[in-house]
């Protein structure tokens, strides 16, 4: 009695098992990348909201002239209330408004003269730097997820499910020179 067929069956069971483990590992990796994108997006949103709040605080602080305060408050309000499609443009407008305010010749001397002005400047510089880092982390996570989703196995077997392909968040985030 020959048992060669048992060895063949065991071999194919092992092959199917190993392929299943590999596919499961790839699906889990892709899921972790999507979670990383979502977490990075939440951190980016928090950093953007914080920057807009500090900009509104600066606009309301009476350290700026009324026209500059109005310009800054308008840009910050639009950034906070923008919908998903216009968010990148509104955040870029806020970055440009912050740089325009900081580039005024009397800005540094006027704001840095008092303790309140120094505190607002430090908070604004920190919030602007966090936006730069958060956007960089988010875009790195999106790039990793897009590379993973471009793999042949992920495309052939729909391992991404119905998850949308993440998009980059591109804004003008050069911080103001404070």
UniProtKB/TrEMBL annotation:
<feature type="transmembrane region" description="Helical">
    <location>
        <begin position="6"/>
        <end position="25"/>
    </location>
</feature>
<dbReference type="InterPro" id="IPR023353">
    <property type="entry name" value="LemA-like_dom_sf"/>
</dbReference>
<keyword id="KW-0472">Membrane</keyword>
<keyword id="KW-1133">Transmembrane helix</keyword>
<keyword id="KW-0812">Transmembrane</keyword>
<protein>
    <submittedName>
        <fullName>Membrane protein</fullName>
    </submittedName>
</protein>
């Amino acid at each position: 009695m020959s048992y060669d067929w048992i060895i063949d069956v065991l071999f194919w069971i092992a092959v199917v098992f190993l392929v299943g483990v590999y596919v499961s590992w790839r699906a889990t990796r892709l899921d972790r990348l999507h979670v990383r994108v979502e977490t990075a997006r939440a951190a980016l949103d928090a950093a953007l909201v914080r920057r807009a709040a500090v900009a509104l605080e600066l606009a309301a602080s009476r350290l700026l002239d009324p026209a500059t305060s109005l310009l800054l408050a308008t840009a910050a309000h639009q950034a906070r209330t923008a919908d998903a499609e216009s968010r990148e443009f509104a955040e870029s407008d806020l970055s440009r408004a912050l740089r325009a305010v900081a580039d005024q010749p009397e800005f540094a001397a006027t704001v840095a003269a008092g303790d309140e002005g120094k505190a607002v400047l430090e908070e604004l510089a920190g919030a602007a730097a966090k936006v730069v880092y958060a956007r960089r982390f988010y875009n790195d996570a999106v790039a990793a997820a897009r590379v993973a989703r471009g793999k042949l196995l992920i495309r052939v077997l729909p391992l991404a499910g119905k998850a949308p392909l993440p998009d980059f968040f591109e804004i003008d985030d050069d911080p103001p020179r404070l």
